[in-house]
Amino acid sequence: MGTNIDMTEYDVIVVGAGPIGSTAARYAAMHGARTLMVEDHSFIGSPVGCTGLLSTKAVSECDIEPSDDFVYNSVRGAFVHPMNGECLPIDGKKTKAYVVSRKMFDRRLAVMALEEGVELSLNTRVNDIETSSEKQKISVVRNGQPETIEAKVIIAADGVRSKVAKMAGLGNVSKVLPGIQVEVPYRSDDTDFVELFAGSQVPGFFGWAVPVNENISRVGMAIDPKYGVSAHQVLENLLTQNPHVASRYGGGKLDLVMGGIPLGPLEKTYAKGVLVVGDAAGQVKPTSGGGIYTGAVCAKIAGEMAARASAEEDSSENFLLEYDRRWRGKIGKELAMGMRIHNFIGGLKDSELDELIGSMNNPAILDTITRYGDMDHPSILMKKMLHPSRSVHILKVFRAFAKAVL
Question: 71-99+175-262 sits in which CATH class?
Fold first, then answer.
């Protein structure tokens, strides 16, 4: 799917051809910029570093309709398993997310970028950037050969350990949760529901079982490294020692995915001639670790702003600051609340988390969750949960939660 670099000078160069890079590149091209997208891997969509569970909003924010080309299954809710106590069933009543082939999804978005005139160069590694002159010079190694390309604006969409963000002096996201997932034989009770595992069995975050079909699920988790435990070991324990999972796990592993979930956005996502987007900027929901919806929202702004900067021949920090201001205006509050929810829940003892989950297991609360639950906007549900009409017990349980997160 690669093309040769036809010239050495572009308006916009996007580093990274994942969904967020492809979306940014497409929007830059749609706004009239000659755009090149470079990717250091030899293929689009591999290696995969994601669960492959995308909210319906994430898919539509990428401007595509769900199709059998990349959707394996759709889910409408979740079974939440605390350490002790009853499972909490959350039923959205309609499709809330898709289980996808990330390889096919990523390729679809890359093709859409190419159809807008974006050039793509695979097997192209960025070694250095120079932003002191009017144009940004990028040193790359393409198919083993060193080359220099120039652009008016660089968009860094090169993931959680972004080299470009670092080279631009913006640093990397400080907190990254290591994640690991395996695709395994697994007897799913209901393929319309994902399963979530909370508490000290997955310290600092949560575990999941995402059904691909009745017989195969993606079982994974992310943990907070401050607990000093191995992600591999925690996953192995979940598969073999959690009674619920172990009774459904058929043994063996069909596929393995590893990655990092960045928590908390960079303080600054722009520098002279450079915009940072997606995982590289920490534009990820701290509640779920999902980054496609939030990243796509920001990628569209980044593509448009890069094209404008190019057209007006102004790639100064002063001009590019608008990108930072606009994306924070759209999702900044949700990310901040998500971080507070993450920190609050991460600080609970198992018994406190069990009580919180148990208190939600009543018809009125479950109905509220069904009506207002939104994977991409947790603040909507939080505010509804704290309505004065709630019982005294529910309000007591949620008061500490509310105080910490609102």
Answer: alpha beta
